Amino acid sequence: MPGHESEMENKPDWEPRYPGSGRMKDKVAIVTGADSGIGRATAVLFAREGAKIAISYLCEHDDAAKTKELCEAEGAEAFTLAGDLGKKEEADKLVSQTIENFGKLDALIQIAGEQHPDYEVEDITAEQLQRTFQSNIFSMFYMVQAARPHLKKGATIVNCTSVTMYKGAPILLDYSSTKGAITAFTRSLSGNLVDDGIRVNAVAPGPIWTPLNPFGGQPEEKMDSFGESTPMGRPGQPNEVAPAFLFLASEDSSYMSGQVLHPNGGMIVNG
């Protein structure tokens, strides 16, 4: 988990869909989970828009190297750093490395996460429960704590929650619980930082075609119909989600904080 994009036959669409317009010019962004999927698409889009990128990932070195190559092809400076952000020391290291390389931090984009399907609540082991919370929500606390001294007025934080927080997910009990925590964290952190001119928002994707699901995030028997339950009848692609992160990280959303965007194939969640 979360799997290698390089090993997927039907590879996700990461390419930005439009020319850059300098919306992140001279900005520095950390993108967690940037080796593949939504993280890769977001990192490359930010690079096209003029940002310098810290590419954070767990252990998928080939995918991360490819993301760095793609960012540099857009004319951006980028570096990669592997590490488990569920460990505070790794989060501290990522932020300190970013400051050392680029001198500042303007946008913290938190996409990394993991999920494990279980049909029965009794099947969720104590180890899995702790691991899922550590990866998905503890990591966000650690990253914000490390980043906070470097975030100045105008900085942004964008967290990745999920449609499962709003609709529930019967076989993803621990995962959807972490996403509920992320949404509450986003709203509360927004109130905590708004007086300092730092905006905090979130994106809640629906079913998106990334390595996470075919590499164990969904039961194998569900993969043939993955995403078909949405009103659009298909899974989304990473490059259909990345613009939501760009909007919330840029000045385009300057009057928004504590909010959630919903690229989810047409599901109405009213949240």
Automatic annotation (TrEMBL):
<feature type="compositionally biased region" description="Basic and acidic residues">
    <location>
        <begin position="1"/>
        <end position="16"/>
    </location>
</feature>
<dbReference type="GO" id="GO:0016614">
    <property type="term" value="F:oxidoreductase activity, acting on CH-OH group of donors"/>
</dbReference>
<protein>
    <submittedName>
        <fullName>SDR family oxidoreductase</fullName>
    </submittedName>
</protein>
<keyword id="KW-0560">Oxidoreductase</keyword>
<feature type="region of interest" description="Disordered">
    <location>
        <begin position="211"/>
        <end position="234"/>
    </location>
</feature>
<dbReference type="Pfam" id="PF13561">
    <property type="entry name" value="adh_short_C2"/>
</dbReference>
<comment type="similarity">
    <text>Belongs to the short-chain dehydrogenases/reductases (SDR) family.</text>
</comment>
<dbReference type="InterPro" id="IPR036291">
    <property type="entry name" value="NAD(P)-bd_dom_sf"/>
</dbReference>
<dbReference type="InterPro" id="IPR020904">
    <property type="entry name" value="Sc_DH/Rdtase_CS"/>
</dbReference>
<feature type="region of interest" description="Disordered">
    <location>
        <begin position="1"/>
        <end position="22"/>
    </location>
</feature>
<dbReference type="InterPro" id="IPR002347">
    <property type="entry name" value="SDR_fam"/>
</dbReference>
